[in-house]
Amino acid sequence: MKKVVIINLSPRKKGTSMMLANRCREFLSVRDYQVEILHLYPNLKNLSALMAAINEVQSIIMVGPCYINTYPADTVYLLEELEKNRDVLHGQDLYGIIQGGMPYVHTHESGLKMLELFAGENDLSFKGGFVIGMGAMLNGQPLDKLLNGKKAERGFQHFLENVVKQENSSSELYYQAQLKMPGMVYYLMAKMMNRKIDKERRGKGIGDQVKRPYDDTGIN
Amino acid sequence: MITILSDHTRQEVGERLDKKLREQKIATEFISLTDMNVGPCYSCGGCTDKTYGQCIHRDDGDIILPKLMRTDVLVMVTPVKWGSYSFKTKRVFDKCAVIGDRHYYYKNRELVKGKIGRVHTFVAIGVKDQWQNDEKSAFENLVAENIKIMNIKGRVHLVDDSNISVFLDSAAEDLNQ
């Protein structure tokens, strides 16, 4: 039986990254894989459990959110610590999954490139990944709830089949799955989301042009 | 105001750039990340709820973020690891969402987000001992996406030992304008 570890790079244990991690677990565990999901954030002070798990497996899947166009800072920390403990890296396959709020693949894809460059320097075999837009809107719901749900589901399924076979997964899969809408739709989406943000602010008693709290801290 | 945020790990480009700008009587704020302790963004939603516009967790972000809110030009000087920002730099960048404009805008047929505070120009300076081509393009792409999503002006500079003097002269002139 092959072993795979899925590392949740999100600080949240419930949300879109974990939904995707669970999808990976369900798919792989019925296909002769022993699967373990480990969370990065509760282990930040002591990464030994993650290191030990990585050392044991044939494949690693890193799944996380996109913060300002790539994975969160603590993913960089994890990679730096792995580099310091290179003896746990010995040719395992590495796959990445990144999900973010914007609907476009290009917004989030730098995260996968970081994993690819890391793998190249550290005796791992980067085999591709999957990018999912509008992950924030999804907020942990199944992929088929996306506006491009059918395409995203199909592409992600194909990606998982690649993982099972330990094959390279092409970026074409997530490019084909991405939401493609006329510009006018995005314009209207912006209007709609802004209205929601402003309504929410007013609901909390905060005006649209309120002075920011950091202006008032007196800390500088 | 120009604010230089610099992760000094293995590089002193930020400090040298600050000195050069000050020699030219350009107002700068220099923030070294060396002794700063900025925690992670836990995506808890506190900054859009209980403590609107402010991180719910107390750390040195309380020192850095108010300074960033007052700046017009943000210069981030960072060692580059695998085509990305250093851990320390990225911790600060992740928290900048707190002071970012939450609204969406429509530009070049796509959705984009708003500015951080009143920053109108973002300059990322990536530092490495030696650049490989694929890492150069990875960092350039990442910064281009940052500039695009923040809907501001900006540019990226790639610095190593071979071009540092030329870079400092041209960057100082560029920022002076």
UniProtKB/TrEMBL annotation, chain B:
Residues 13-117 form the NADPH-dependent FMN reductase-like domain. Transmembrane segments: none annotated. Pfam families: FMN_red (PF03358). InterPro entries: Flavoprotein-like_sf (IPR029039), FMN_Rdtase-like_dom (IPR005025), ISF_SsuE-like (IPR051796). Keywords: Flavoprotein, FMN. The keyword Flavoprotein applies. Gene3D superfamilies: 3.40.50.360. It comes from the Bacteria. PANTHER family: NAD(P)H-DEPENDENT FMN-CONTAINING OXIDOREDUCTASE YWQN-RELATED (PTHR43278). This is NADPH-dependent FMN reductase-like domain-containing protein.
